[in-house]
C-alpha cells in the first residue's frame, strides 16, 4: 500500500513532539540559569502531549499499527477475517463516537461558561476542542484502513521485538 506523505495528523503529532521537547529544554535551561521556572510549561506540555497522543493514534489507525491480537486473524478464512475487520471498526467507531460526543459537549460548555485555565488564564475550550476533533480524525483513519483491509490492501506486518 502506498503511504501518503505529509498527512496532517502526522505533521500535527510531529509539531506537538517538537513543542514538548522545546518547552521542556527551555524550562530546564532557564531553571538552571536563574533558579526560576516558566509558568506555562506544564499547561502547554500537557496540552501538546494530548495532541501528540491523539494525532499519533490517528497515524497508527491509518497504517494498521494499533496493538491488537492478530493470532485469530491469521488463522481465519478470508470471509471471517473480513467480519472481524468490520467488528473491530465498529468497536472503535463506537468508543471514539462517544468520545467525540462528550468531548464536543464539554468543549461547548467550556466555551459557554468562559472557563479559564488555572495556570495562564487562557480559555479552556482552546485546549478541550482538540479531543473531539482528533477523535473524528481517528475515526476517519480507521475507516480508511478498514476499507483498505477489506479490499486486500494490507500494510506489511511490523515485527515488534521484545
TrEMBL record:
Q: Which residues cross the membrane?
A: 12-32, 44-62, 83-104, 124-143
* A matching Pfam family: DctQ
Q: Which residues form the Tripartite ATP-independent periplasmic transporters DctQ component domain?
A: 20-151
Give yes or no: UniProt keyword Transmembrane helix.
yes
Q: How does it sit in the membrane?
A: Multi-pass membrane protein
Q: Which UniProt keywords apply?
A: Cell inner membrane, Cell membrane, Membrane, Transmembrane, Transmembrane helix, Transport
The keyword Membrane appears for this protein: yes
**Where does it reside?**
Cell inner membrane
Q: Quaternary form?
A: The complex comprises the extracytoplasmic solute receptor protein and the two transmembrane proteins.
What is this protein's function per UniProt?
A: Part of the tripartite ATP-independent periplasmic (TRAP) transport system.
Give the protein family: Belongs to the TRAP transporter small permease family.
Q: Which PANTHER family match?
A: 2,3-DIKETO-L-GULONATE TRAP TRANSPORTER SMALL PERMEASE PROTEIN YIAM
Output this protein's name: TRAP transporter small permease protein
Taxonomic source organism: Marinobacter metalliresistant
